[in-house]
Automatic annotation (TrEMBL):
<feature type="transmembrane region" description="Helical">
    <location>
        <begin position="34"/>
        <end position="55"/>
    </location>
</feature>
<keyword id="KW-0812">Transmembrane</keyword>
<keyword id="KW-1133">Transmembrane helix</keyword>
<keyword id="KW-0472">Membrane</keyword>
<protein>
    <submittedName>
        <fullName>Uncharacterized protein</fullName>
    </submittedName>
</protein>
Amino acid sequence: MTTITTTTTTTILLLLLLLYYYDNYFYLFYYKLLQLLLLLLLLLLLLLLLHYYYYYYYYYCY
């Protein structure tokens, strides 16, 4: 499970680097595309955090 979080964080960092480098060249199309990808990755991270929270809660409180 920790590998999933590390891969998601590395992909977010790579997408931010792509957004930084290709901001001047392909501004109109790739900016919208990367915004959608970052939004999807943030939703995935929120789901993983909720999963870890509930797993911790049920594992240690019951």
